[in-house]
Design brief:
alpha/beta; Alkaline Phosphatase, subunit A; eight-stranded mixed beta sheet; four-stranded antiparallel beta sheet; about 45% helix; globular
């Protein structure tokens, strides 16, 4: 028995595996393609994507084209250098894939190099970010580990690699070129030919390849490797704007008596194709006239409060009586969402101020901070003779609000330093929203009874992280009640921070009442995004509907309050993009509803619709998931394929023309052109 064992161990010890390849070029190509394709398929699996579809075939063909180029270059190098290059490539793609699946889980979006300016924000929560990873995400490390083990075995000569011949480099080049031409053609067919397209997809694969503006769909269709390369290409070279032949079909109802003669003349003389695309879209955008809510708040003051990381957990009379008072005695929109995108706070604030959809894969507010928005909420009130201002109880660390708000017409901007508030630079301790509101009340006290003001406030205290902190622990005793026993400690700390925000609302209400301004002031509140430092599993401890469907965690409160309102709950599906046109109608401001891709919620023909960052949408009948083109129905009503194509076209155009308008500072151009 011992002899057999010794003999077996000797065989193991002397084991050698001999591998033969035609030549180094074919070996490098096969090796890289196989390993990277395995990474791509694991990414699909951990992201709950189907691996048995056309996109997997497209991803493989894309990798073949990329690796043919790499392998040809490597054929000139010694094997030891090739191994280093291959290892670096695999390490980079492994880390990139792991980061992408982590970001999508943590922030709800895939990351782009276009938002590198926010790297500091992520670094601030790095431990929270890593802790949010599900254990199965680490399967992405398996191919890398396999490669490292393989290289170790080769170094120890347990695995020997031999090539049958040494082809001349010229022949390698010829082979590479032929194969690249073949697979590039096939790849182009896969993204161009209608048979390989999903007709319900809100943006075509060809458009996505030229500009991967929708990372959710781009990564699904092309894989992480190709998306990374396309993203880098766009950062370096930029994106050529799409130009469509303009065929203006002016379709406004003549009974509305809109004088568009100057606008139509501008279209006839404008030579810039992109600007005329925008002219054509917006002049034909839906014009909403007056309705029964027009002027309901005319000549009243306005305070808009964008509540940081505030979701429906805030709707709790026992814990948060001040917010509940506003909700229960005002207009409450129960199907309101704040869809996430890159740089959610800054972008969702921007959309709330200008009524346009921000650019999904960019920190839009920062990237276009020099834009002027004559149609912004500040300028509408400026034109009405109001005194406008905006305040936020944090610094300019993440968003250049002083420039952004000023360029939108805010007469005065106050940050945390201007307000003299205490805070921690590295975000472990934000400023107190209660102290914030005390300073707001002091500033509002400077306005007399004849001064009309419009103020935008952005809070901060409920922001992550939700570890041990002064405000996270301040009200923990409130959750000693047995009904909170199953709540995660992070959730309790988040709710403790919400209490600070609610106390701040109490300070504001009492301050306005003491100054005699409460009865003459309208307060509008909406959450900028859900608390994305908390996983769905934690959130559903307080909100059972979270996780029942994609994007249900993005449901946040939206309230319009005035002391003289009869309380109402509205079922319309809505989001922050509707804030400006709705307020403009309620205050009877001089505005053109066509300048917004959002809508007045009280218009007679408003069709409730929420559009998410990736082109998904939801209304009272259905939820359409753009990433996989699936639709889920809630009622007996079902859409035909033509109906869905029509809705998807509307969604695509709203996002597309919003983005183009921001990229080209369109409304600044339009106002100047019409004025001249």
């Amino acid at each position: 028995m011992k002899k057999k064992k010794d003999k077996f161990m000797k065989k193991i010890k002397n084991f050698k595996l001999n591998l033969k390849f035609k030549n180094k070029f074919y070996y490098d190509f096969t090796f890289l393609t196989l390993i990277i394709f395995i990474i791509e398929m694991i990414f699909k699996m951990v992201s709950n994507q189907n691996i048995f579809d056309v996109s997997s075939m497209r991803i493989l063909m894309g990798l073949i084209c990329i690796n043919l180029v790499i392998s040809y270059i490597e054929s000139f190098l010694k094997d030891k250098y090739t191994k280093v290059i291959n290892l670096i490539i695999i390490i980079v793609l492994t880390i990139y894939s792991l980061l992408q699946v982590g970001f999508n889980n943590f922030l709800g979006v895939y990351i782009s190099f276009n938002v590198s300016s926010q790297a500091g924000a992520v670094a601030s929560y790095i431990f929270e970010f890593i802790k949010s990873f599900y254990w199965y995400y680490y399967f992405l490390l398996f191919p890398l580990i396999l490669v490292i083990v393989y290289y170790i075995l080769r170094k120890k000569e347990i695995i020997n690699l031999k090539f049958e011949d040494n082809l001349y480099k010229s022949k390698n080049l010829f082979t590479s070129l032929i194969l690249i031409l073949i697979f590039t053609f096939l790849y182009d067919v896969s993204i161009s030919v209608e048979a390989f397209q999903n007709k319900l997809q809100t943006i075509t694969n060809k458009e996505l390849f030229n500009n991967p503006s929708n990372p959710s769909i781009a990564i699904k269709q092309f894989g992480t490797t190709m998306y990374m390369l396309l993203d880098i290409k766009n950062v370096i070279l930029g994106v050529e704007p799409e130009t469509i032949e303009v065929t203006t079909h002016y379709n406004q109802d003549p009974s509305l008596k809109i004088d568009d003669s100057k606008w139509l003349s501008l279209i006839e003389t404008e030579e810039n194709g992109v600007l005329n695309n925008l002219n054509d879209y917006f002049i034909n955008n839906k014009y909403t006239g007056e309705n029964s809510y027009t002027g309901l708040f005319e000549d009243k003051n306005l305070i808009v409060i964008m509540m940081e990381s505030t979701n429906d957990i805030f709707i709790n009379e026992e814990l948060y009586p001040n917010f509940y008072k506003l909700l229960s005695t005002g207009y409450y929109f129960e199907n309101n969402y704040s869809p996430r995108n890159s740089c959610a706070t800054g972008n969702n604030e921007l959309s709330g101020m200008i009524g346009l959809y921000s650019i999904y894969n960019k920190c839009t507010a920062n990237a276009y901070k020099d834009n002027l928005y004559p149609e912004s909420i500040f300028n509408l009130f400026n034109n009405k003779g109001y005194k406008t201002m905006s305040m936020h109880d944090y610094t300019e660390r993440y968003y250049a609000r002083r420039e952004i708000h000023t360029n939108m017409g805010s007469m005065h901007y106050f940050d945390v330093d201007d307000l003299g508030l205490t805070y921690n630079t590295w975000t472990e301790e934000w400023a107190s929203d209660e102290d914030f509101m005390k300073q707001v009340v002091k500033i509002l006290n400077n306005y007399g009874p004849n001064d009309k003001f419009m103020t935008w406030l952005t809070t901060v205290t409920p922001h992550q992280p939700y570890g041990k902190s002064e405000f996270g622990d301040k009200y923990l005793e409130l959750f000693d009640d047995p009904k909170y026993d199953n709540y995660n400690i992070k959730l309790k700390r988040y709710m403790s921070k919400l209490k600070i925000e609610d106390d701040g609302l109490g300070v504001l209400l009492k301050g306005l009442e003491k100054q005699g301004k409460l009865d003459d002031t309208v307060i509008v509140l909406y959450g900028d995004h859900y608390p994305y430092g908390l996983s769905n599993n934690i959130l559903k401890e307080a909100l059972p509907y979270v996780g029942s469907e994609k994007y249900e965690n993005e449901r946040v409160p939206f309230v319009i309050w005035s002391n003289d309102l009869e309380p109402r709950t509205f079922e319309q599906y809505t989001s922050y993009v509707n804030v400006v046109p709705t307020i403009a109608n309620l205050f009877n401001l001089n505005y053109d509803s066509r300048y917004y891709t959002g809508s007045d919620l009280f218009s007679n023909d408003y069709e409730g619709l929420v559009i998410f960052a990736d082109g998904s949408w939801k209304n009272k009948y259905a939820f359409y998931d753009a990433s996989n083109s699936n639709i889920t129905y809630y009622t007996y009503k079902e859409y035909t394929v033509d109906d869905l194509i029509k809705i998807n076209k509307i969604v695509e155009d709203k996002i597309k023309y919003s983005n183009l308008a921001i990229q080209h500072d369109y409304f600044n151009y339009l106002y100047k052109a019409l004025k001249n």
